[in-house]
């Protein structure tokens, strides 16, 4: 019976014009997104397309799904079409589950259609990117240097940046350890450099560098000469044999010419283990986004079992909005209680203890804490940050999102079934 109700709900939504409008607007926004003005970086258009899809198109679809799921039951009750279902031997819990399942199928359809169109457009644009900017098209596990040092002498230090003169007077050294944890037959490694470069020669926009990759355990080393351009990342693939059983790698860099300089910090060199392609990472982001849809659908359907359609829509939208600003809600009491925490951002009247604020904090602190505890945290479903950096979305993140959604949706389903069961229709 659940599948029957879900199928009926799905077919009912498919016939509504609002779904057609959502798909049409989504397609239009995706087509227009590559032409939105952005920075001059080669991968800026790809990043813009990702941001537009996950922050604009997805938001538009969520608002549409909230409208559909929050109005379905109230309209059926008002039109008395639900009486036909209630007259049959079916529990009201199954009705609620069927509604949620039906709208989940609609959400999946939206994400599949628009997600496929978006990734095809991204792949088309990204195929023309320079090699140094194709990291966004990968799913990489990031390693930061465990140690950083300068062999020899540095030229000078300015604002935390160590500058090294060419000619082997100084060599920058980064050590990465624990790489064996990510070793498997399908893994490959690459190192990415974001160095500051300068030269006493005129009209120079690139300098040659000597880059060494050494197995810290066995001492096996491979040296390459690379051309580093101003404000452009440099990527070098690592021979898996160099990583070795020790799982530790030393990376050294210095300019060839004595007239050239590089500015380095510990975070300027990062090592990545490339696990899967961009499509696999993108698919995990879509799954996490679907769980976000499923959670807000559960909340909207729960509200619709008791509230009228307009109130149910507004309630779901408010919960969705508040679920994105939980950090502010959690910090609000702290700002009141600790006037010195955000002193730079507060007016002068708050820079001194105020007895009124103390009483306000006493009255609202516990309600705010409960409010932030009860509200769903939709920021848990933010997968865009991984895609923009070409970082692999851990399966643990997908699992945590799935568990969080299951628990919260289960609570909503339990409350909805109790409320709907107590409603009298005859």
Description:
By secondary structure, this protein is of the alpha+beta class. The protein is about 50% helix and about 20% strand. It has helices at about 1-15, 15-30, 45-80, 85, 90-125, 240-245, 280-305, 310-320, 325-335, 355-375, 385-390, 395-420; strands at about 140-145, 145-150, 155-160, 160-165, 170-175, 190-195, 195-200, 205-215, 220-230, 235-240, 250-255, 260-265, 270-275. It is elongated.
What are the key terms here?
426 residues, alpha+beta, four-stranded antiparallel β-sheet, five-stranded antiparallel β-sheet
Helix content: 40-55%
Straight-line N-to-C gap? 22 Å
Number of helices: 12
- Gyration radius (Cα, Å) is 28 Å
Strand order of the largest sheet: 2-5-11-8-9
Quickly describe the structure.
This protein is α+β, with helices and mostly antiparallel strands and 426 residues long.
